[in-house]
Amino acid sequence: MSEARIKRAVEMATKAHEGQKRKSGDPYITHPLAVKKILEEWKMDEDTIIAGILHDTVEDTDLTLDDIKKEFGETVAFLVDGVTKLGTARSGMRNLETYLPETSDNLLRLLIALGSDIRVLIIKLADRLHNIRTLSALPSDKQKKIARETLEVFAPLADRLNMGQLRVELADVSFSYTDPKRYQYLQSLIEKHNKSAEKTIKRAEKEVTELLNKEKIKFEISGRAKSVYSLHKKLAKYNQNINEIYDLIALRIIVNDITECYLVLGLIHSLYTPLGGRIKDYIALPKQNGYQSLHTTVITPDKKIIEFQVRTHEMHEYAERGLAASFYYNEQKLTENYRTGKIQHLPTNLLWITELQTAAAQLKEGKKVDLKKLKLNLFADKIFVYTPKGDIIDLPNGALPLDFAYRLHSEIGGRAVGVKINGKISNLNHKLEQGDIVEILTSKNQVPRESWFDKIFTSHARQKLHHQLNQKNEK
Ligand code: MN
To answer: What is the reported pLDDT for 2?
Structure first.
């Protein structure tokens, strides 16, 4: 770490944001400095921290990407640019969610569409975390909007990246704004439950500790309370029946290696009766986000139900900090990002990110990507194009400019006279390609035309055009 370089970034950002204030009245620079601190806590690399300090300068101040490139090099400039673009792509995310049913996959689609160095997302998540922490300064309609977006987009994203700690904070704080009454109710429910289970937990902790000590296993044990938002979601799944929620309180045991995990599981089962069907081996079969642990739910002799989670220190680190932890352990490989044509090397539990980056890199080089080969089947036969403002529009492969126009608005479709693709005038027969920036040229005098059916690929646009022609004929 070059402290001098980081200091220079702070000075540059302070000067650039001079005179700007946050809604809270604080000087604006408090925000980038808070983002810096979060990234440092996540143990991110120096370029990421510097980009975090500068993340709002290009959009909100006179500083340019060139200034940043000159002072801090290409990687920092690339990261700042990515964060800026990701900001403008947010309304595009909304768009994706409207048109495609599975929300979580849309996130992955968006990631590929952006083809970003994954560190861009980490900066964005740190940015969002601080914004959520300081949400009280905003007017209430804004609070609700940002909180909802955080619940819909950023908390699931943190989950995908296995950043458990971040997911819980983003979700719980947001939920306290989107549904304050429910939040308070569930919070008190959890407290009440914790209190009544205190004795049981204490006794189980003692019994397990004695047994593991006897077996000479080195371990840490602690309780973990369920987060408010995850309880909310689980209750919805179980008809609001709290008696069916078995993991309100869990005891977490952290050991040194995998063999000990299974040993401890066996020992727990020698003490208590496991509930059938509730033993989960996420070590042999990790969750899709790479989460690993052994889970078991048992009944104590006094007929209380407790969940145990057993994992190694490393698994725990990944469960809490996820992607950020991978970077920490892979720092030397980290500089090789896809921008230089190389793929970041990540642990197997986050291999989907490697897949994602491979796909993004190939798309960027104009190569065809065999999406069927992607284990995650991230998107099927889709291309992503941008509006000049940076919104992302997803279209089927084969789509033409009028498909894009009608997707934006039927009015834009109906009045189209031409198209600019990547800044160049093109014609309406031109097939759109992955990553194109598309601008539809319109004229008030234009009317929808029968002949356009030949220049349309999607049924969506076809329907809209049909509708417009019918209306025209009725007049
Ligand atoms: Mn910001």
So the answer is: 84
pLDDT at 370 over 90: no
* Nearest CA-CA partner of 380 in 368, 397, 360, 359: 397
Lowest mean pLDDT across 53-57, 70-74, 162-166, 207-211:
162-166
Burial (CB count <10 Å: 0-12, 13-18, 19+), residue 321? buried
Three-state DSSP class for residue 316: helix
> How far apart are the C-alpha atoms of 76 and 82, rounded to whole Å?
10
Query: Is the pLDDT higher at 361 or at 374?
Result: 361
Do the bridges between strand 219-225 and strand 249-255 make them parallel or antiparallel, or are there none, so unpaired? antiparallel
- Show the domains of the chain with their CATH numbers: 3-177 (1.10.3210.10), 181-320 (3.30.460.10), 334-474 (3.10.20.30)
- Where in the sequence numbering do the catalytic residues fall? 59-60
Q: pLDDT per residue over 8-22, tens digit each?
A: 999 999 999 999 999
Ligand 1 center from residue 277 Cα (angstroms): 45
Cβ neighbors of 267 (< 8 A, separation 6 or more) are 208, 211, 212, 215
d(CA 454, CA 242): 58
How far does residue 389's CA lie from ligand 1's centre (Å)? 19
Enumerate the H helices of 223-369 as residue ranges.
228-237, 258-271, 313-329, 331-334, 351-364
Q: What is the pLDDT of residue 451?
A: 93
CA 131 to ligand 1 centroid distance, Å: 7
Is 380 or 237 the better-scoring residue by pLDDT? 237
Contact present, 282 and 291 (Cβ < 8 Å): yes
Q: What is the mean pLDDT of the chain?
A: 82
Nearest to 256 by CA among 311, 188, 201, 337: 311
